[in-house]
């Protein structure tokens, strides 16, 4: 309170005055605001009634106990007229009439609107207001209670939000601009609201709170049932209630009207399925479409409340389907699916199919108004048109018609099911009357699409069971009926086994849902129902709307009308405990109490390094300390744990001694016993010559003869380790790595320096080094195999150049043309064709290393030497291109070869890449040709080489090579014949003279064919008897080697990079020869995240790990 004296005249100067009735107070407007002047009652008699009072107590710290108005951040202009909205429509708040439509747009600021020069800090006022607590009832709860009793009614509170005033100091936040007298032709004025409005965030909370406060204050005068009606059966301003009798309904409605009228609230728009209830109220309190009806003769229309269509005459719920055809777009499909509002799930088997179609049609992101795939349009149209059949379905509003007095027991029965499309649950109310008859009423149903990605059927059935439990909790808490029990049914015995399980554990997904089910239900409440009798099955498989009434969806299965149960007495067991992926493996823990110090060295085989073995034993010893009685434990080290701290040297040495002692006790038990009992060791023992003794730690050490040497004990008396134990291999590998993979002597020296004496160390060290992958990478030998038998083409007596091997060699620089300034040079290469049987050669010069130039050379060769049956070469790019150019098949199977030979008479076989040794027959000839050419070039000196000269040289080289003897030259004068390839090619030999005597030319021609035939026969006879046997022996690769197998890890040679950078490869395929030996393989190599396959000979590979070594670890 602010007290101002009369001496401050300026403050008390009246700017305006409003006079009341005679002897009544009057108001004056001062500079500080309006003041009331009148008589003050000092006693309790005739105390005025407080209309609206706000008390604010200021605490000692200066803070108010109630909230203050929001800080005024708006520029508020003083308005001369206090009746802000009186000029608008003559009421205390604006209200648009039905026949008044103003063609004006309302501005709404969007997030992207920057045309009003708004700063980034500007916010919409509605977004920053607190909407208050959610005091509203659950929609499903109001609907569930609405169906209990036979007499039902609905009502509405007239303009509920506008019935509650806004505090005077808060009204400035509700200012707005509008036309004077609601006329767009007049000026725009500034108004402010006196009441709460629709769209304002806190309006629902304020209105519901005021409504409930009104009911609580009137409970004493109007009854507890009125308060419960307002608090439990209103959804915002809509009230839905069912009563056991008409009298009860009429009394409840009238008392509610009177109670709300005390707070200036009007309950109207009453509608009921009872004519007597409607007649008890004046027509102005009836629903709008009931006011002009003759309740005695006219048919009561369908009422719509909270999304449900209620037929008053039949007391049933119906559907009104919107038949407007929407476009086949994402927006249109979504609008049609959502237009069928079904909060209680009456049509869930139908609507879930629409949801599934919507997800299927919009699986790919598309624009809201873009056409959807035409292939699915017919399916969509059929479902959309089938919705019209829902109009003929009527669902009774009341659960059962049994009077409440005649009901003996009520049960809640819920069924669940799942498929790959949807999960569903449906609930029924089962009532048993005094005669033992059962009555079933549909409560609600629910169907949801299965989550994506797809889950297994048992998981989906479990999700359906969780949905059933959640539905049961909702119904139990909202129905306001005494239920004896809740029964759950599912057609999945797997889920029943999960729920009834008491022995096994599940993985997280199943475990969480089982925990949710067990938290609200008991396993005895769950029962099995066959799929054909499960009504929830209809909602998972999409029933057409026209067939919904013929199913058991609304009535429930027939067995519910009886009281028999066929469940096993001991519950349900898990179906398959061995192969069910949801069940955790069962781990058995055995505790053994022993006083032995043996660790069991067989466990050491689980370790691959000496360091990991020692550290593991160190951790175990650390844990053992904290299980000993009386050992002081720290806060971080208690019981079984993994300690992150670093191990000390003493701990590591203790772990080493324990592991070595365990090995020695297992291997040298007899020797230890003899030494302890001071007996001589057996002469057959391998330790006899080492003179072993036991040190202070109980370990065997070498005695020997150098006890007096000035060396450390580890060097004089090393620890004895058996070579056949895994720990010896770990030690050798450890010190082999310490010496950076050097040889056997380095490794043995490091072992001895560390204080270890391994019995038979040389053999063990050699074996470990041989198996070392790093050493194989650095120094491993390439793979070899026994030299293969010669192919049949090398041993056949067919005409020359029937089977040919070829290769290209060169290049040579030749003068191609003369220019003014000198000569223009170019390169030339030569193609050598080698006959595989008689070892003859044919050389063609080519101008480039491309396919075209090689094809021309091949054509010249065939034209001169005749047709070729088989061609062999490496995988040069020009050879492969020529093979494709001439349509010659390469590396094809036998059947295709035979077919092609009959058609074209030629086949081309390529050797693997980097396998020149497989073409030794022609590689050897190229070497000879190079030596002859070198001699020719040396004799020519500095003479420039031309194309013609090179061609001539090649012809002479071929002649020299074809004249070479294939076998050693005989010194027998009676055997002057020399076996050369040219003998068969030219059919001439200088040592054979003409027949003696005098013959004319005619006689000589008659005998010419005999001479040629004799010469050919002589050649092949010599070839068989002398040449072919020179090919018998194998000069290298004489022994069989183990074949490379698929799965082996190899190092593949790459001549372009260093050996330590050669890529690793995995053998994927092998190609055995006729003798079963593998000489070429397919290798998979990964380089730069790219996987490639290579065909390579084994001579290019180094074996790192065989498949057997990989499987043995």
Automatic annotation (TrEMBL):
PROSITE patterns: INTEGRASE. It comes from the Eukaryota. Gene3D superfamilies: Ribonuclease H-like superfamily/Ribonuclease H. PANTHER family: DOUBLECORTIN DOMAIN-CONTAINING PROTEIN (PTHR47331:SF6), PHD-TYPE DOMAIN-CONTAINING PROTEIN (PTHR47331). This is Uncharacterized protein LOC108645796 isoform X1. InterPro entries: DNA/RNA_pol_sf, DUF5641, Integrase_cat-core, Retrotrans_Pao, RNaseH-like_sf, RNaseH_sf. SUPFAM superfamilies: DNA/RNA polymerases, Ribonuclease H-like. Residues 795-989 form the Integrase catalytic domain. It comes from Xenopus tropicalis (Western clawed frog). GO terms for biological process: DNA integration.
